[in-house]
TrEMBL record:
Subcellular location: Cytoplasm
An example Gene Ontology CC term for this record: cytoplasm
Protein name in UniProt: dTTP/UTP pyrophosphatase
Organism ancestry: Bacteria, Candidatus Falkowiibacteriota
Protein's GO biological process: nucleotide metabolic process
Family annotation (PANTHER family): BIFUNCTIONAL DTTP/UTP PYROPHOSPHATASE/METHYLTRANSFERASE PROTEIN-RELATED, BIFUNCTIONAL DTTP_UTP PYROPHOSPHATASE_METHYLTRANSFERASE PROTEIN-RELATED
GO terms assigned for molecular function: dTTP diphosphatase activity; UTP diphosphatase activity
SUPFAM superfamilies the record matches: ITPase-like
Group of enzyme by EC: hydrolase
Organism of derivation: Candidatus Falkowbacteria bacterium RIFOXYA2_FULL_47_19
Amino acid sequence: MKKIILASTSPRRKKLLDQIGLRFKAVASGYEENMDLKMKPADLARYLSSGKARAVAKKYRNAIIIAADTFIALKNEILGKPGTDKQARITLKKISGRTLEVITGLTVIDTAADKEVSRAVITKVSVKKLGKDEIDAYVRTGEPLDKAGAFGIQEKGAVFIKKIDGDYSNVVGLPLGELFSILKKMNRKIY
């Protein structure tokens, strides 16, 4: 039986795979992302997830490699993880009252069959209008600093969400429905 390798050490992605009962090993990809490439957001997401998957696939001969790269786009502007409280406040003000696209590039590689499938999954997330006090209080929690778009839907940032159109797990960082579909096409059963 082929090992399943998650090319990520993200606690959120690990939790999602645990949630569906998938047995896997998490491995850091070591892949250097370049967010400055001049590509459409969905194309960039696929490109980056493929790079992560390929970096890990080199180390395994008979495995299924799963890699993902998630970010938020606001009218084709990619909103990454803010590095400082000030950047978090700027990003939260920018997304206040807006509808965002959460884009995950998902790549699955079967190393034995030398087969790779890459997809971009997009979920629209509408954020309620945020007041200065709400933004300041949220930034003080420290949560925005390691989240694309400066909020975590699966944590405290959930209170800022007005509406979701699409796959919730995609917003967390790994579109489980699409992953299930890809694995099924590769004749890999989850259950």
